[in-house]
Amino acid sequence: xxxxxxxxxxxxxxxxxxxxxxxxxxxxxxxxxxxxxxxxxxxxxxxxxxxxxxxxxxxxxxxxxxxxxxxxxxxxxxxxxxxxxxxxxxxxxxxxxxxxxxxxxxxxxxxxxxxxxxxxxxxxxxxxxxxxxxxxxxxxxxxxxxxxxxxxxxxxxxxxxxxxxxxxxxxxxxxxxxxxxxxxxxxxxxxxxxxxxxxxxx
Length: 202
What we know:
Elements: H1 3-23, E1 33-44, H2 47-57, E2 63-77, E3 84-99, E4 102-118, E5 126-143, E6 148-152, E7 156-168, E8 174-186, E9 189-201
Antiparallel strand pairs: 1-2, 1-9, 2-3, 3-4, 4-5, 5-6, 5-7, 7-8, 8-9
């Protein structure tokens, strides 16, 4: 078999598989959907703030845990095939440092509107793109011997772009994996964050 014939057979197989996948609906279409997810985050802070956090990370006994959060996402279908949906979402990043019983956490939140578009049969099936935009703010929380409290920033703006893949687990549950980049501009702080997360769409 020639190389050209091999590629032709592979192309036909992929086309057939894609057609079969598109025709099948792996999960039930709903009037609205709820999404929540968690994952790893890699925030990139302004130089002055990054230096302070680097100094904290270098201290003996300090543990550092950055977390990506999609806390509350409600999506409403925009098309009859349920491949595109729009709705409100609260997303963010929680960056926590702990030593013994003392801890400090720097949170970023975006309260916005989120758009999901799937390239499969319906919501939660196959490759998808995601775009968010909204109002953002930072929250610093600390519990230590010398200080305990919460500091909240003024409002700013935030945006997110991402892509991922979804699987239908059953009629009403879908599992999503995605990678995204978010950007928040709040007062004098411009923070970009790359994140990889997993979640469920109900």
